[in-house]
Amino acid sequence: MKELQRLKEQGNTLFRQGDLTAALKTYTAAINQARAAGLYNARHHWRPGLPQAGLLGTIYSNRAAVALKLERYEQAVWDCTMAAQLLGVQLAEDVHQPPPPADADPVVGKTLLRAAKAYEMVCAITARPCCLPGALVRTS
């Protein structure tokens, strides 16, 4: 857990410094370390009750922010989806869903914004209509 936190903070520093490639590699190293530790399997199914879920959700959301800046929009969509699952929410296509509660982790809101931007860019590039996630729905 300490190593995951250290890698997240290192990635954040690199992101703030504008070293996007290094930040991406650092967040990816943290995710790979979680996998090597057996925290999830090859199909990206996380262990139930995972105490590091919030931290890993933040790492995925941060990696999505890097992917957006690098114009890797499909990766950003994937990372936002993983972040949402780990944070106990799901990306919902129904814009009539209620927004997250005011006391929700701020990473939840950031993840929603990043997902919407990534979906928007994927749709613009592919020139096809897409469903944008309109809300996050708490699953826990």
Automatic annotation (TrEMBL):
This is Uncharacterized protein. It comes from [Myrmecia] bisecta. One of its GO terms (biological process) is cilium movement. InterPro entries: Dynein_assembly_factor_4 (IPR052004), TPR-like_helical_dom_sf (IPR011990). Coiled coil: none annotated.
